[in-house]
Input
Amino acid sequence: MKFFHGCTALITGASSGLGVEFARQLAPHANALVLTARRHDRLQTIKAELSRSYPNLSIYCYALDLADLDAVERFTRWLSDEGVRINFLVNNAGLGDHTLFQASEWAKVKAMLDVNITALTRLTHSLLPVLRSFEDSAILNVSSSASFLPVPQLAVYAATKAYVTSFSEALRAELRGTGVSVTALCPGPVDTEFGDVANSGHSGPGFGAPEFLKVPAERVVYEALVGVERDKARVIPGWMVFIGMSLLFCIPFALTRFGLNASVAGLHEDEEKRQRIASPRPVR
Output
């Protein structure tokens, strides 16, 4: 991966899942890594792990809640004050909530909008002048295969990822010829802590996806980095997911809508049953 030799990479959501895997796979090639996440203790553990194997690698850990836009502004000022010049931005952090929209908590919905859309856009906007100052640099936006269609029980999450995929394509077109490449990573189901956090009690990791569709985090990250090096616009890891998404694009949306409606049949009845069990009528 010659493209990443000597790079200074910023990875958001670096404390677990794909984020920590990006750090591990970039560590042998990078000159410096900037790792951000809410859990500073986890970042320090990852820093200790990587420092043992790569003592010459500079690692910066910054506790950052991307849902707090003021904190994002302070972080970008910190990068400037420290003289840390990013030439590979990995917008990896993301939140999900797996439940019917009417049953969702507004705090979770707002956090998804703030992290998946606002923070990603603001961070990219702030760092773009620095990225353009390099002869070659790159932005990798972690989207999702859910960005290609509406997904019941993941309505807001899928919508935010549709924004990320669309934004990446438009930004890539705007930056053509500037030396800044933009790639959207659109993985299918991956077993990480993301599934546990997004799960509202209705399914397990991967949101109940069959095993043959799941792709290991190591492979997802490797294919993403290869895609960036080859200046690909979009990376969909795993042949089964790639074929499935390719076939989906060929289906008229009227048929897709029919399938979506069928997939949620009975969900409202199940939700009402759960509510009745949770709030039984008083016995007289």
Q: What stands out?
A: The longest strand covers residues 32-37.
